[in-house]
Amino acid sequence: MEQTAKKGILLMNLGSPDSTEVKDVRRYLNEFLMDERVIDMPYLKRLLLVKGLITPFRAPKSAEAYRTIWTKEGSPLIVLTQQLQEALQQQVDVPVEIAMRYGNPTVQHGFDALMKKVPGLEEVIAVPLYPHYAMSSYETAVEYAKEIHQKQEYPFKLEFIKPYYNEPNYIEALAENIKPYLQQEYDHILFSYHGIPERHLVKTDPTGSHCMMNGNCCSTSSAAHATCYRHQCFTTTNLVTDKLGITKDKFSVSFQSRLGRDPWLKPYTDFRLTDMPKEGIKKLLILCPAFVSDCLETLEEIEERGKETFMEAGGETYKMIPCLNTHPLWVKTIADWTKAIVAGNKEMVLVK
Ligand SMILES: C=CC1=C(C)c2cc3[nH]c(cc4nc(cc5[nH]c(cc1n2)c(C)c5CCC(=O)O)C(CCC(=O)O)=C4C)c(C)c3C=C
Ligand SMILES: [Fe+2]
Ligand SMILES: [Fe+2]
């Protein structure tokens, strides 16, 4: 490949265990949950909780769950991120690599691979594969990449694509991805976002007085919205339903995948799946826009277990709409953003 710009792209996703063996799942969970932006407790307390309580019980169960979705190529999340890399590489003339926040391939591996491909590498554009800002997803990916960049004294400049929850071309891709599923009969569409503990919203609120102060906090104008996960999830939902002409009575938002006993964002997806058939919602479409690539939390929690919950509660049809994965409009969107940055347009760059 002839290099015109000494730049590279790094697609950053969350990561998966190396295999479905309990020892690999244990190592992955320990790394993930010892992240202070995920379990936000003082180190010793976190260590005791994660290594003494959560991981020993969770690792065998999670390993079993991973076995139900694992493919011969490996974890769906990793395989789909690789497929996104390949599709994007067809559209841009700077090298594209992938890296995971936890597990493999690491961020350092991604940086080294780009350095190898581009002698004299001047700039890396990192694309966090999270549309919304949460300290346990977007923020930790960015801060971790910055830490590796600094510690290893890489000579290139590192830039990040900003959260894109409201970007018109992202919304358009999401809408196009949903559209074919609207042909089938449905009573309701549930937008199920990954949950976070409520206190994380308070922690990332730069105003110190906005998030969770009242039920409408996310719909009133505030500087906090730049880092308010709840606001951003509602915004994505409203923009995409507006675009598709889906009326307010036909959709709602819920939050999935909670861990532990603290209050997480509500309503909880599993509770809603149990209640909806009783409310007359029998035919459900469900999607998980917090994820760009299908993963354990979509394929096992929502597509498999969620369906069981809904059908056992009296539901009739249940269809999960896949994540954006390698949807052509999504690939084009990332290509357009990164090409613009390579050309010197900084509109999509995170400013901190
Ligand atoms: C939107 C992205 C994500 C946020 C925000 C997030 C927060 C968060 N997650 C946990 C705990 C777990 N999450 C797990 C899996 C998982 N989480 C995300 C994304 C976000 N997490 C993804 C893409 C995945 C799937 C990974 C895969 O390999 O497919 C898991 C591991 C699986 C399990 O045991 O259930 C845990 C644990 C917390 C505590 C948290 C916020 C505080
Ligand atoms: Fe908010
Ligand atoms: Fe998670």
From TrEMBL:
Biological process, per Gene Ontology: heme biosynthetic process
Keyword Ribonucleoprotein appears in the UniProt entry: no
Gene Ontology molecular functions: ferrochelatase activity; metal ion binding
EC numbers on record: 4.98.1.1
Chain residues that bind Fe(2+): H194, E297
Pathway in which this enzyme or protein is active: Porphyrin-containing compound metabolism; protoheme biosynthesis; protoheme from protoporphyrin-IX: step 1/1
CC terms in the record's Gene Ontology section: cytoplasm
Catalytic activity entry: Fe-coproporphyrin III + 2 H(+) = coproporphyrin III + Fe(2+); heme b + 2 H(+) = protoporphyrin IX + Fe(2+)
Enzyme class at the top of the EC tree: lyase
Subcellular location: Cytoplasm
Keywords (A to Z) from UniProt: Cytoplasm, Heme biosynthesis, Iron, Lyase, Metal-binding, Porphyrin biosynthesis
Function: Catalyzes the ferrous insertion into protoporphyrin IX.
HAMAP family per record: Ferrochelatase (MF_00323)
Family as reported in the entry's similarity comment: Belongs to the ferrochelatase family.
Protein name (database record): Ferrochelatase
Taxonomic lineage of the native organism: Bacteria, Pseudomonadati, Bacteroidota, Chitinophagia, Chitinophagales
